[in-house]
């Protein structure tokens, strides 16, 4: 497969290769309670996806740009059996298979392919989802075009998007959640603190800055109905893991419990000012 910056094969394959050998967040799925913010996010994304599925209607699932396939592990754990993973990195698919096996989950189908041209049959999936794919393209249109082609009538698209965080938002999140790191930052002692900021590994990977209207317009162009909105108010910026576990995580869990009590899915809905992501939900 060719290396290119949009959806970079080289960059991603190297990230997943390192995760395979390091165990550092190589698995985010858990059957128990979330032990850190990354696990908490993944559980909540899945709750939102599950909340949007009508029982019985949706059977054929495709995780497009699956990485370690955390969401698919949750689906499989809940008894869904017709799951396909597509990724352009063989290391990602290999890691996903190891994770499914280690958790005694039924292995999904895996397809090594570009999300812009999978060569899978048209209208062959009832639900197409991913967590963090669309922001990795300068031109997202081919991914949306392929998604619309693969989606069956009545099907649903669920795609949280994590754009590059603007300096203003990053400052706001640090002021709210990590004032100590902000002070340290001004004394130039701080490391990069936001999980969503590009890491060194991501140097060769695109992270775009498109806003919700870009995605809403794109899905309309491909005759899908739906919209893209602010998502995930739970910033992950504490450097102190103990503090994160004892204070931030519990506060987030309580806030999420309230969101779940008051709203329909997506429960992780956010306001424009506090969302660290967007959620694209569309139907055919
Ligand atoms: C943020 S990661 C997804 C992480 C995933 N949600 C998980 O649980 O690990 C984005 C994934 O998209 C894949 N990807 C990027 N560009 C792609 C493309 N053009 N075609 C297929 N997959 C692509 C990357 O290899 C990577 O695994």
CATH architecture: 3-Layer(aba) Sandwich
Q: Indicate the overall shape.
A: globular
Strand content: 15-25%
How is the CATH topology named? Rossmann fold
Number of helical stretches of at least 4 residues: 9
- Element-by-element helix/strand order: HHEHEHEEHEHHHEHE
Instruction: Give the CATH level 1 class.
Output: Alpha Beta
Q: What is the CATH homology-level superfamily? A: Vaccinia Virus protein VP39
Mean pLDDT: 88
Strand order across the largest sheet: 3-2-1-4-5-7-6
Largest sheet, in brief, is: 7 strands, mixed
* Rg measurement, Å: 18 Å
Unreliable stretches, pLDDT < 50, 5 or more residues? Answer: 189-201
Structural class: alpha/beta
In short:
By secondary structure, the chain is α/β, with parallel strands linked by helices. It has helices spanning 9-22, 37-52, 70-77, 90-102, 141-150, 167-177, 179-186, 212-221, 241-262; strands at residues 61-64, 83-87, 109-112, 125-129, 151-161, 225-231, 277-283.
Describe this structure in words.
The chain is α/β, with parallel strands linked by helices. The protein has one domain (9-283): Vaccinia Virus protein VP39 (Rossmann fold). The chain has 9 helices and 7 strands. It has helices at 9-22, 37-52, 70-77, 90-102, 141-150, 167-177, 179-186, 212-221, 241-262; strands spanning 61-64, 83-87, 109-112, 125-129, 151-161, 225-231, 277-283. Strands 3-2-1-4-5-7-6 form a 7-stranded mixed beta sheet, sandwiched between helices. Strand 2 (83-87), helix 4 and strand 3 (109-112) form a beta-alpha-beta unit. Helix 2 crosses helix 3. The two termini are 31 Å apart. It binds S-adenosylmethionine (SAM). The site of S-adenosylmethionine has 20 residues, from strand 2. S-adenosylmethionine is lined by residues 7, 12, 28, 65, 67-70, 86-89, 92, 114-116, 131-133, 136.
